[in-house]
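Worked example 3. Consider a protein that binds nicotinamide-adenine-dinucleotide.
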Amino acid sequence: MTKPRIALVTGASRGIGRAIALGLAQRGFDLAINDIASQATALDAVAAEARASGIRAMTYHADVASKPEVQAMVARILQDFGTIHAVVNNAGILRASDVEHCPEDYWDSVMDVNAKGTFLVTQAVLPTMKAQNYGRICNISSIGGKHGAPEQAHYSASKAAVMGFTRVLAQEVGPFGITANCICPGIILTDMGRVNLDDPAIRGAWQAKTAMARIGDPDDVAGPVAFFCSDDSAFVTGQTLNVDGGIVLS
Ligand code: NAD
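Given these inputs, the predicted complex is written out as structure tokens:
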């Protein structure tokens, strides 16, 4: 990797986003890490931990579902770092409900953060990536966007949207040296993952469905994301990689 590379990771205060940020820091990326303002303390702690790898790390509070906030955030990152080489659209929410009883605002908020947030952040960084003829966009979808589970239809729809968005994006930006790929985590032990894992019977069932016979750790996702953010994946675009220990087999 030509150093320094600058990566923006959204939703980086905890869980998978935190692990991705720290994984990129260990690989020499400078970091612009984002989360909503209420996560400020946790986000600061991630930045401090990342700096221990000897890289620059700065924090940016923004709701990825808000176009003005996203545009202001990207403008500040460009002032601070000069450019952005890689973006990891990781911020996401899950609000479980079956379809029959799903409140409209569950649908809207899940689509807004997971799908529209990915679109807005990507849109905001494209002029910079095109101008430098280089970019790496890694979108965190989910195996839930392929198979899904009961009470997660709206979440599944939002993650399928991210995959469709990424396939077309890859075609549009490829001529500018920009790649766009998706990671589909499986069942990963985070605050969000606990929705699937609190019940020991459900946890056991997921473990039994997984070839590796264990629940995933956030660090399991960091390496594959780093691959998509690096030059090792220069000729890989429009792809979706399951990082699930072998639940969805292809
Ligand atoms: P998490 O809830 O632990 O962390 C999500 C982070 O995103 C939080 O820090 C949260 O504050 C942030 N966030 C939420 N809304 C935001 C917004 N509007 N703007 C900016 N930041 C926002 O969840 P996680 O398990 O770490 O999930 C990370 C990503 O991985 C999500 O996109 C999720 O859908 C996906 N995923 C998770 C699993 C799993 O099992 N945990 C499986 C598949 C996919």
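Take a moment to read the result before moving on. Strands lie at 6-9, 30-35, 57-61, 86-89, 135-140, 178-185, 240-243. Residues 10-11, 13-17, 34-36, 39, 63-65, 90-93, 113, 117, 140, 142, 144, 185, 187-188, 190-193 surround nicotinamide-adenine-dinucleotide (CB under 6 Å).
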